[in-house]
Design brief:
By secondary structure, the protein is α+β, with helices and mostly antiparallel strands. Helix content is 43%, strand content 27%. The strands form six sheets. The chain has a three-stranded mixed sheet with strand order 2-5-4. Strand 4 and strand 5 form a beta hairpin. The two termini are 32 Å apart.
Length: 395
């Protein structure tokens, strides 16, 4: 799944400070010569603000191009359909879109609609472009991320870059140039107080989100949440509440809809994923649960049908388990107190890796690294939930 709605951490120079006048003049002249680049960054920032705006949609068998035109109006920016990108996945302008959601960001809604069709969106000029995932992954750009709010970890930019490169390799199709992969175009360069990142759009957003997680984990201050982060917090709180159900040979998707309606859980079933892995959405399910956390109810409901769920694009996102097992997400947790009670980083990491006997670690699976009292954990959503319970329990 492609996550393309997290606002990147744009780096802007701060105070000029005690800089000789001639150097200041030179810098201003140089900036003027780069005005086109700066103006494009400002334009991109404005587009991100629009994409992060809350909107409602209700499409019912709406032609794809008409749906994109309506999304353009609601988000408030032009949306261009990349014809070559659409041709890559079979010209979906002829297909129909059915989706009804309220109180979600425009970026998340676009991602839900596009992902099943092998498409994604990117920012260009002063609007958005709809293209294929493959074309997005071939388009690289460089962004600079400030580390000034990350404390001691930010001052150790070289080691932070090494950890991020290791734990994000492969996420969202990211690959980093290294002695083992000299053909990769992605680079992560550590500089004093900042990271310079060359990656495709999805990769840039993974790094931006990781740095936001680090900032929250190391800071005693509270920072305003993005709309996407607010949605995540809401869903996590909702899924922790008690729930009950009594399904007797009810079609699986009908059971999911019943739970969603009763507990007001925004959800999305990726029917294309189910079809690819020959999972039937109308498989009869029988399940009786009396007062258990809603997250556990979802686990039990989907387990027998070879389905998995996670929080993605501001909804409970359901897809074939086989597909989810190839999808990794990154969580960064402050474990400074646990390092003491568990006898150090090596022992805590060992315990984390042994939590789920089905999970894999290493070159072909999850990654976990410790840096400055933080654990950087890359794993599948279901294993991340187990790790989260373990770390939060303080066991």
């Amino acid at each position: 799944m492609r996550l393309f709605y997290l606002k990147p951490v744009w780096h802007r120079s701060g105070d000029i400070g005690l800089v000789p006048l001639r150097l200041t003049i030179f810098a201003l002249l140089f900036s003027w010569s780069c005005l086109g680049g700066m103006s494009s960054l400002v334009a991109a920032d404005k587009v991100w603000e629009k994409v992060d705006k809350i909107i409602d949609v209700n499409f019912s068998e709406t032609p794809f191009d008409d749906a994109m035109a309506e999304m353009s109006k609601k988000i408030g920016v032009p949306i261009r359909l990349d014809e070559d990108g659409l041709d890559d996945v079979g010209a979906p302008a002829r297909v129909k879109v059915s989706a009804g959601f309220s109180q979600m960001t425009g970026g998340a809604l676009l991602s839900l609609i596009l992902e099943e069709r092998g498409l994604t969106w990117t920012i260009e000029e002063e609007g958005l472009a709809i293209t294929s995932i493959e074309r997005m992954e071939a388009a690289f750009r460089t962004e600079t991320h400030s580390l000034l709010t990350l404390g001691a970890i930010g001052r150790n930019s070289k080691e932070l870059a090494e950890v991020l490169q290791e734990v994000t390799e492969g996420i969202e199709g990211m690959h980093w140039k290294s002695p083992d992969d000299d053909e990769a175009e992605g680079t992560l360069v550590a500089e004093p107080g900042r990271l310079s990142v060359t990656q495709h759009r999805a990769g840039q957003e993974v790094i931006a989100d990781a740095l936001r997680q680090v900032r929250r984990a190391v800071s005693k201050r509270s920072f305003p949440l993005t709309q996407h982060e607010q949605a995540d917090v809401y869903l996590k709180n909702l899924l922790a509440k008690e729930a009950s159900c009594d399904f007797q040979k009810q079609p699986l998707d009908a059971a999911v809809r019943a739970i969603a309606k009763q507990y007001r859980v925004p959800n999305w079933i990726n029917y294309a994923s189910l079809s690819r892995h020959e999972v039937h959405h109308d498989t009869p399910v029988t399940l009786t649960v009396d007062k258990a956390p809603l997250s556990e109810l979802m686990d039990r409901l989907l387990h027998e049908s070879d389905l998995e769920w996670g929080i993605r694009d501001e909804v409970v996102y359901i897809a074939a388990r086989e597909e989810y097992e190839s999808y990794a997400e990154l969580q960064i947790v402050n474990v400074s107190k646990l390092l003491i009670s568990h006898g150090g980083a090596a022992q805590l990491i060992k315990e984390v890796q042994e939590l789920d006997p089905k999970s894999t670690w290493g070159a072909e699976g999850g990654k976990v690294r410790e840096l400055g009292g933080l654990l950087f954990i890359r794993q599948t959503p279901s294993t991340q939930r187990q790790i989260g319970k373990f770390l939060n329990s303080g066991s």
